[in-house]
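Researcher: Quick sanity check before group meeting.
Model: Go ahead. Protein one:
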Amino acid sequence: MRHDIVVVGGGPVGAAAALSLHDAGFDVALVERGAAPPRWNASDYDLRVYALAPASQQLLDELGVWDTMVAARVSPYTRMRVWERGPESALQFSAADAFRSQLGWIVEHGLITSTLWQRLQALPIFTQAEIESVQFDDGAAGVNLRDGRRLEARLVVAADGADSQMRRLAGIETLSWRYDQRAIVAHVQTSQPHRDTAWQRFLKTGPLAFLPLADGRASIVWSADDAQADALLALDDAAFCDRLARASEFVLGDVLQTTARIGVPLKLMHARDYTAPGMVLIGDAAHAVHPLAGQGANLGFADVAALTATLVQARSAGRDWSSPRTLARYVRQRKAHNLEMLALTDTLYRAFRPSLPGLRGALGFGMGALNRSAPLKAWLAGRAAKA
C-alpha cells in the first residue's frame, strides 16, 4: 500500500498531524500500535490533562474539532499565579496582560484524542500494528508490519512518543537524563474555588500546580523526588489531602477529596536530529520537557503546524516536499524554539533546588520585581500563549 505520508503514533500530536496533512491534500495513513481510543465518555475524567495555549487552540479549531471539545468539556483559565513563599506575593499573569480573553484551556487527553480520531475515519488507519522494520531507498520509505503488511510512503512522520521506536530504527541519537522525580497526578476538590486560575508553587523538590477543571475541581501535578513521591503515593486519601493543602500554603483552602493518584517519571530528552532520510520527528519523539512550564503538548502541536506549512509551501512552489532540503526548513523553524523551552524548564528546575539557596532567594525577589513590571509581564504572557 502506497501513500504520500505515513504517520506513526495516534496520540494527540500524531492524530493532529495525520488530520492536518490530510486536510492539506496529502494521502496519509496512520499507524498506531495500540487500539483505537474509546469514544468520549463524559462520566469519566481523564487524569491526564493539558494546558493548551491559544496557538494550540487555533490549530485544533482549524482541524474542525475545537467546537466539539468545547461542547464536551473544556476549562478556560484567565489568570496564572506563581510563587515560592507566600501566595500573597505571587507573580500574577492575566489574559489581559496578553490582550486576550483567555490565557489557555485545560483539556483532557482522552477528549482530544477521541475527538481527533472521529475526524480521522476517512483515512486508512492501522491499529494494533506492531512495526517490524523500516527501510529507506531512493526517496521512499517502507514500513514493515509484523503481520506481513508493508506500507510505502515518500515520508514517515514519527509521532510515537518519547521512547520512539521509529527514532531508534532510524538511528537518531538523543540527549537525555532523568530527573529522579515523578509527577503525582490527581483531581482534587478544594474548599475554595479555583477562580479560573492556574496556580503553581515552586517547592524545594519541584513545582506543584493546580489546574482548573470545568466541574470546579483542580487537576494537580506535583513534581517530587522519587523517595518523596513513594511516600506521598503511599498515604491514605485524608493524609494526602492534608499534605497537599499544606504544600500549597492553603491557596485554595483545604483539600477535601482526591481521586486515585498516579506517578509519572520525569525526564528531559532532545533528539540530536529531527530528520533521517525519509523520516521526520515531531512531538515527544523529538523532545520531552519537564512539566513545570506545561508546554509539552503545545510544543508538539506547534511542530504539527510548522511541518504542514513547510510541506505545503514546498509543494506549492513545485519543490520536492519530502526532500532533506525541505525538511531542513522545518528543523530550522522548530529546533531552536524547542531547545529554548527545554533549556528554560531545566534551568528553572535546577534554580529552585535546595543546593542553590542563594539563587532561589534571588529568583523569589525577581518574581516580586517582575510582578511590578507591566511591560515584562505582557511579554511573558504573550510568550506563554505560543508554543
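Researcher: Fine. The other one?
Model: Protein two, sequence then structure:
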Amino acid sequence: MASALVIGQVFFPASDSAAQALNAFLTFGIAFIARPLGAIIFGHFGDRIGRKATLAASLLVMGISTLLIGFLPGYDTLGTWAAVLLCVLRFGQGLGLGGEWGGAALLATENAPAGKRGWFGMFPQLGPSVGFLLATLSFLALTLYLSDAEFKAWGWRIPFFASALLVLVGLYVRFKLAETPAFAKVLAAHHTHKTPLKPLLIGHLRPVLLGALAMTVCYNLFYTATVFCLSYGTKTLHIPRADFLQMLCIAVIFMAVITPISASLSDKFGRKPVLLVGCFLAILAGFALSPLLASGSNLQITLFLSIALLLMGATFAPMGAFLPEQFPVAVRYTGAGLAYNLGGILGASTAPFVSQLLVEKGGLGWVGYYVSAMALVSFIAVFCMRETNESTMSL
C-alpha cells in the first residue's frame, strides 16, 4: 500500500515521477527475493526443533523490520542511504515472512481432524484478506483526516508503528500453542534430519518447483490488483486516493468470503479440481483488466478488483493444505515454505514493476496478458501435481 502511494516520493529523488514509481516497486520486490531464504533458515529449525518456537522467531524478525521502516528518514534527510536502508529492512521483512507461512499452515493442518485439512488450512489463508483490509482502512482513515502534505511527511508511518501491537498479540498467541502431534511424533522417534534442506532437494524437488509455479496465480492476482492498480488508478487515472481505497475495501470482501468456500470445496471435491477451475477463470480475468481499468469508471474498476481478489482467494485457500500435503513431516516446514515463497519471486516480486513497465512500453492490455500468462503457468503446474485429498493421503 505504501509502495503504491508514497514510498517513491519519500525515498527517491523527485526529478522523475515514473522512475519514482518503478524504484518503489523494486524495493517492494526485494522482500520476495528474501522470502525463500527465510523459508530455508526458519524451515531448518522448524523441521528440527518444532513449529512453535520457529514461528515466534520469524514474527520477531518481521515485526522489528516493519517497525523500523516507520522510523526511517527519507531521501531529503539521508539521500541515497534512505533507499539503501529501506531495501535492508524490506529484506528483513521478507526473511521473516519466509518463515511465517509454512509454520502457520503446518500448525493448522497438522492439528486438523480427518477430512478437514482444507478447512483448517484455510485460516492462515485468511491472513492476507483480513490484513489487507486493516491496511486499507488504516490508509483510508489517514487520507480522510490528513492533508496530502501531512500524509507524505509523517502520516503514512502510523500503520508501521501500529504494527507493533499486532506483533505483541501474535507472540502471546504463539507461546500459548502446543507443538503439533505429527511433529511431536517424528521428534520422539528421532526421525528428524540434521539438515532438512538436503533430503528435501534430493527427494522432493519436483513438488517444490511445481508448488512454486502453482502459487504464481495467487500472488500475481493479489499484487496486480492491490499494488499496481492502486498506483495506476491514483496516478494515471487521477482517481482520488480515498475513492480507490474504498473500492479496494469492497473488493477484498469478496476475497474474504470466497476463502472458506473454496477451502470447504477442496475438502469435498479435492484440491486440484478447485484450483484448476480457479486458474482457468483467472486466465479469462486477465482479458478483462484493460477494458475495465481503462474505462475510468469507479464501478467497472471495482468490478475488476473484485473479480481479481475473488479469484485470488479461490486459488489461495486450498494452498494452505495442498502445499504441506506434498511433503513428509520431517521436511514439511522447509518444503511447503520454500514452494510458497519461491512462487512469490515469480508471481509477486516483479508483478507491479513488470506491469508498470508494460504500461509504459506497450499499453494496459499487456498487463492483462501478463496476468493471464501467470494464471496459465499455475494451471499447468497444478495439473502436474498429485491430488492430496483425504482419500489418497494422510498426514
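Researcher: One line on it for the slide.
Model: The chain is about 80% helix and 0% strand.
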